[in-house]
Amino acid sequence: MRRRLILTGWVAALLAAGTARAADPVELPTAASVLVEKAARRLTLFDASGAPLRVFTGIALGGAPTGAKRYEGDRRTPEGRYVVDYGNEDSAYHLSLHISYPDSNDRALAQAAGRSPGGLIFLHGQPNGYGMTRIPGDWTDGCVALSKEEIEEIWGMVADGTPIEIRP
């Protein structure tokens, strides 16, 4: 099971909106669900009542972002309802959270086309060693990419088993 991060320093101070000293640790709230809106380039974390906890804008998608992922190599980000099923601290990107793509429908669509549906779709940060800036534009092979700071925050708020919906 993935450990929850407890943020300290200036990030914690920003999140606590001035209610804690910069050195005090802040435990992040747990998100009940995640929504990715591809056209808006937006990822939102929601609490159990459906209220937004945090909104991230300017997310990067697959290099061919329009349309749902149909098969391996199409560089599209999936669309549909999935689950964040595990985290990887040691990925090639700064933290990654696996999305349970493909589901049975995705596999059937790819099989009907004589293709593999692919897999290994993640929410992740920038490539390790890239620095603090973001790679501009849509550049992934179907994943959702964020800044290093953003994925650290998401990592601390999204537990294994959290539902994620990806909309066009």
Strand content: 25-35%
How many individual β-strands?
A: 10
Sheet of most strands: 8 strands, mixed
CATH architecture: Beta Barrel
CATH superfamily: L,D-transpeptidase catalytic domain-like
Structural class: alpha+beta
Question: How many angstroms does the end-to-end distance come to?
Answer: 31 Å
Key features of this structure:
alpha+beta; globular; 8-stranded mixed β-sheet; L,D-transpeptidase catalytic domain-like; two-stranded antiparallel sheet; 168 residues; disordered N terminus
Description:
- There is one protein chain.
- The protein is an alpha+beta fold and 168 residues long.
- The protein has a single domain (30-167), classed as L,D-transpeptidase catalytic domain-like, CATH 2.40.440.10.
- It is 15% helix and 27% strand.
- It is built from 3 helices and 10 strands; from the N terminus they run βαββββββαββαβ.
- An 8-stranded mixed sheet has the order 5-4-3-10-6-7-8-9, with helices on one face.
- The two termini are 31 Å apart.
- Mean pLDDT is 88; it is low at 1-14.
Helix-strand blueprint:
Blueprint: E1 6-7, H1 9-15, E2 26-27, E3 33-37, E4 42-46, E5 52-57, E6 80-88, E7 96-99, H2 104-112, E8 121-124, E9 144-145, H3 148-157, E10 162-167
Summary?
The protein is an alpha+beta fold. It has one domain (30-167): L,D-transpeptidase catalytic domain-like.
